[in-house]
Specification:
45% of the residues lie in helices and 4% in strands. By secondary structure, the protein is mainly alpha-helical. The longest helix is centred in the first third of the chain and has 30 residues, at 20-49. Residues 167-203 have low confidence and may be disordered.
Length: 203
């Protein structure tokens, strides 16, 4: 009786799987697995390509999925997700840009070199430690840096002496000219006679 029961079950299953509809469904499942398998391999290739600059690693990632066969490719996908780089190249690039922008913003903030506190661009002296921050150009009265040798606003040369807000006129020998003289003044060697060019003096 047991043999008869097993024979009947076998015939039922045989007739079930031999049905055209059931075979069509089974073929569809197999084709679907193959398509998903190949798609997973292509996805691993593109994903690794976006995460590394090594030209070989994308092919290795795709091969890992292909070796797992259509029936075990899910395990290959899990292994790939474990070993792949955590960040994409685009994310790394954006993070580097954000860090550079933050550093540039920090560098633009002026701080006192004496106490490292934040100071204003227009301050001359630090109100906390009294450290000299900048100076005023004697010619245009604008703020300039302490290490500047020339005013960027008016071109005043800080290395030349200044009298009454004006640079002292120097003669051709590099000595300061007397006050009130202009470019026409020229120093003469010792022993020579200096001619007074001032008409008001009657000379």
């Amino acid at each position: 009786m047991t043999n008869d029961l097993s024979g009947q079950l076998g015939s039922v299953f045989g007739s079930f799987f031999s049905s055209a509809i059931v075979q069509l469904i089974l073929y569809s499942i197999v084709v679907y697995l193959f398509v998903v398998w190949l798609a997973a391999a292509y996805w691993a290739f593109r994903d690794m390509h976006d995460r590394t600059e090594n030209p070989v690693l994308p092919y290795l990632a795709s091969a890992l999925i292909l070796i797992a066969t259509p029936f075990l490719f899910v395990l290959g996908v899990v292994v790939y997700k474990v070993v792949r780089p955590a960040e994409r190249l685009g994310d790394v690039y954006e993070r580097n840009l954000a860090e550079e922008a933050l550093l540039a913003e920090v560098e633009q903030i002026k701080t006192c070199r004496g106490c490292d506190r934040r100071v204003d661009e227009e301050w001359i002296i630090c109100p906390w430690c009294r450290t000299r921050l900048s100076r005023v150009c004697p010619n245009c009265e604008r703020l300039v840096g302490l290490d500047w040798t020339l005013c960027a606003w008016c071109g005043n040369d800080f290395e030349r002496p200044v009298v009454a807000g004006r640079p002292v006129v120097e003669n051709r020998y590099g000595a300061p000219a007397p006050e009130g003289t202009g470019p026409a003044y020229q120093a003469r060697p010792a022993g020579s006679t200096v001619t007074n060019r001032n008409p008001a003096a009657g000379g």
